[in-house]
Amino acid sequence: MKKLNMLYTGLVIAATMAGVAPAYAQMRIEISGVGSNQIPVAVAGFANEGVSPQKISEIIKADLERSGAFKIIDAGVITDVNNIDYSGWKAKGADALVVGTVDALADGRYDVRYKLLDTVKQSRISNLDKAVTAQFTRLSAHLIADDVFFKLTGIRGAFSTRIAYVKQEGRNYQLMVADADGENEQLALRSNEPIISPSWSPDGTKVAYVSFEQKKPVVYVQNLITRARTVVANEKGSNSAPAWAPSGNKLAVALSKDGHTQVYTVNADGSNLRRASNSAGIDTEPQWSADGESIYFTSDRSGGPQIYRMNPDGGDAKRVTFGGSYNISPRISADGKTLAYISRRDGNFQLYVLDLASGQEQRLSDTTSDESPSFAPNGKYIMYATQAGSRKSLAVVSVDGRVKQRLTTQAGNIKEPTWGPFMQ
User: Fold this and answer.
1) pLDDT surpassing 60 at residue 26
2) Which of the 8 DSSP states describes residue 160?
3) In terms of residue numbers, what domain contains 137?
4) Is 26 part of a structural domain of the chain?
5) Which residues 6+ apart lie within 8 Å of 34 measured at CB?
6) Which of 93, 217, 224, 227 has the CA that lies 20 to 30 A from 315?
7) What is the total count of domains within the chain?
């Protein structure tokens, strides 16, 4: 497992941006469905964790349960983590056991120790020992959950990643950044004009977005650490839909500077603007593939909106979606195998995924007003915005459609989600 200090960058961003203390999101998470072949894991309360500002074991438990990959067995509190009754825990149905301790240090930090134990082989699978400051105790819990997820599934966990989204209350628009579970919410930008289309930079230190503060859509890039902003696209007409190239040094955007909207590429500092698509229709919503070899985008060149793929330098575009007459908002998984998008069928806007190799598509949502899908960096979950009664909220679904989560807040609409990258 990567050490905690290798991921401090993400929490430094959270601690420094907006210059204010965390404003907790008060998100309510509802989980339905379970993953196939759930792994039974017992999670014990960490000895002495009451000294910590965060209850480490409860965050770990919530992360693992939310994933749908585990059947969580409550193990109470285990104070002696060096003498484990392996056969007893195996008899209770646990294949693995999570134990740990928290100690307050004289310098104000907290020593967080954890072990992941195999009850079948009666051996240790993994362990972590790290001293953290109070502001990093939540991160330590997410990283432990990441480690458990990886060690038991072989897939990298994404609990320690961040999400960004727009919260709207009347004419007040806020670009927010939070932990992947919706907690530890931070303000990145506040405006009386709409903010749309946030997009994370590959290194997780910047967010591109569209703001209407100049009474027209303009594309900005904001550094989340320094809070410095750069105008990336402010051409005549509409400037919209920024998407980062995997290199982190340029973006794709949709501009109407030459009449109808087309896809362009531009350096992250606003220089070297180049047109990529060239059609008589509207080309918009560009998204780079993780290898940087393709740009997926929405175009109505065939009559109705469908998703196409082209080289970043332009050239012939190939149509990708054929199911249904209205497909928009493409998002491509990190391994390049799965395309997520919003499809309108029978008057409903719903989240679909397409297996690019087989051409098989699957509807993932049971809601009817979905928008803005975004893959988790491990490719196993998709976050999107949807309607919950009279309010817009966020939802998460596993790519197999088995596990569904709904994240709602007590006030305002939350929409336009984008899932941040793994922090290196």
Assistant:
1) no
2) T
3) 33-153
4) no
5) 68, 71, 402, 403
6) 217
7) 2
Rounded Cα distance between 300 and 284, Å, is 9
Q: How confident is the model at residue 27 (pLDDT cuts 50, 70, 90)?
A: low
CB 99 within 8 A of CB 117: yes
Residue type, 39: I
Among residues 103, 126, 153, the one where a domain terminates is 153
CA dist 395 and 373 (Å) reads: 9
Contacts of 121 (CB under 8 A, 6+ apart): none
CATH code where residue 97 lies: 3.40.50.10070
Output phi, psi for 359, to 5 deg.
80, 5
Q: pLDDT tens digits for 314-342?
A: 888 999 999 999 999 999 999 999 999 99
Contact residues for 395 (Cβ-Cβ < 8 A; gap 6+): 365, 367, 370, 383, 384, 385, 386, 404, 405, 406, 407
Same domain, 133 and 177: no
Q: How far apart, in whole angstroms, are the C-alpha atoms of residue 118 and residue 127? A: 12
Cα–Cα distance, 251 to 232 (Å, whole number)? 9
